[in-house]
Every structure is written in C-alpha cells, then in structure tokens.
Amino acid sequence: MVFRFLTRSMVWIALLVCAIGSVPGAESPHLEEVGVAFVVDGPSDEIDAVISLCKEEIRVLTKSEFNVVYPEHSQRAADWTLDGARKAVHAALDDPEVDLVINLGILTTQVSCCLDDLPKPVISPVVIDAKLQGFPMENGTSGRKNLSYVAFEDTLVAELKLLRRVVNFKKIAMVDNGNLLSEMPEVSLVAEAALAAEGIDSVFVS
Questions:
Q1: CA-to-CA distance for 66 and 189, rounded, in angstroms?
Q2: Which of 6, 3, 22 is nearest to 123 (CA)?
Q3: What does the alpha-carbon distance between residue 130 and residue 46 come to, in Å, rounded to a whole number?
Q4: Residues 39 and 104: beta-carbon distance below 8 Å
Q5: Could you tell me if 88 and 78 are in contact, meaning their C-beta atoms sit under 8 angstroms apart?
Q6: Which residue did the predictor score with more confidence, 59 or 19?
Q7: What is the DSSP letter of 155?
Q8: Quick count: other Cβ atoms within 10 Å of Cβ 127?
C-alpha cells in the first residue's frame, strides 16, 4: 500500500510538472505566474495537510521554472455530494485566475473525468477503478485533451481475484465512507456485475 501511494504520488507530480509546462506563457524566462486550484470533495483537516504537502512538493520541483500561485478564493471545497463536486469543479474551470485544476477527491475526480470538454489542464490522482468508473482510456492515456488521471492496471476485480487465491470466499462485503454509494450508485452496480461474472457475490455497505 505504501509503495502504491508513493508511486501514485510520483506519477501525478510528474504529470503536474508537464501540465504546468503546457500552460501558455509558463515557459517564460521571467517565471510568469501559473494559477493552480485544488478542488476537494469537502472540508477536512486531513485533506488540508495533504494540500500543504503537495504545495511544498510543487514548490521544490518548479521553483526554478515557474512561479506557481494559489489564488485563495480559487481553492474549492465541495459539500461531500456529487452535485456539490460538480459545482466546485465548474467554478474552478471557469475561474480566469486558474490555469490548472488539481482534484484531490473521489467525487471531484468523477466529475472531471466524465466531462467531454475541459478548457484547461486537469489532474486527478484519486481514482478507485478507472474502468468501473467509466473513465476514458486510449493507449495508456485518457485520450481526452487537458485530462490526466492516475490509475493502475490492477483493478478492483483483479485484486479481489488475487485475494481469493489466498482466502477462498464466495461473498464479500465492501464498506464505503458513508457517501460514495449514495452519490455514485452506478459505480457499485457496475462493480457488482463485474464481480458476479467472476463468481463473486458482493454487497456494498454504507
């Protein structure tokens, strides 16, 4: 789990640096400002700590090339609902002071990765299972302009099949954090069908 977290972090930070470099004017020798907005599912002390760590990593990696700024009013926290996440994402995309959007939530990631048109670069490192969530994929990328997300090939179904090789089971209960199932019921339905095809009976509990 630690390796996966570190790998995911390194991958999305690399994507971030590339995305910043693609912002018009970012290659200026005068370090033209690049506005970055973090968009999260809801207010949380834990996510605030993660954002602080991300900002420090971004500063270290880009300080000699870009002047990255975080307009205070441009940082968006939804209300732990899909509708709130949708409003927060669109507000960041429409904000003229924001050049790059970073989603640090499952719901905000769901919204962004399902949009057909993104007017500015968006990075989403918080992905459960890109296939189950219906995210676009094309030759190892999203295939969609301005969209980058971090996902691994070992899907939920593949991981449970591997677990079944260690502990033989026919039914499994999966517990969410209290709001994901109600906000994204179609994902649990797709997951149930995919697991059923592998002979695994599943129940999702919130």
A1: 44
A2: 22
A3: 24
A4: yes
A5: yes
A6: 59
A7: -
A8: 20
Which residues on neighbouring strands pair with residue 171, listed in sequence order? 201
**Which alpha helices (H) appear in the chain, and where do they start and end?**
2-22, 45-62, 82-94, 106-113, 156-166, 180-183, 185-196
What is the spatial distance between Cα 112 and Cα 108, in angstroms, rounded to a whole number? 6
CA distances from 19 to 34, 35, 122, 147 (A): 11, 12, 8, 10
In this structure, are residues 57 and 138 in contact, taking their beta carbons and an 8 Å threshold? Answer: no
Which are the contacts of 73, defined by CB distance < 8 A and separation ≥ 6? none
Judged against a pLDDT cut of 70, whether residue 77 lies above it is answered with yes
* φ, ψ dihedrals at 198, nearest 5°: -100, 10
β-pairing, 100-103 vs 122-124, is: parallel
Residue 153's pLDDT band, with cuts at 50, 70 and 90, is: low
DSSP letters for 141-153: B--STTEEE---S
pLDDT tens per residue, range 102-152: 999 889 999 999 999 999 999 988 888 888 788 888 887 788 889 988 877
> In the chain, what is the straight-line distance between the N-terminal and C-terminal CA atoms, in Å?
23
**Cα dihedral value 192, 193, 198, 203, nearest 10:** 20
User: What is the crossing angle of helices 185-196 and 156-166, to 10°?
Assistant: 50
What pTM was estimated for this model as a whole?
Answer: 0.76
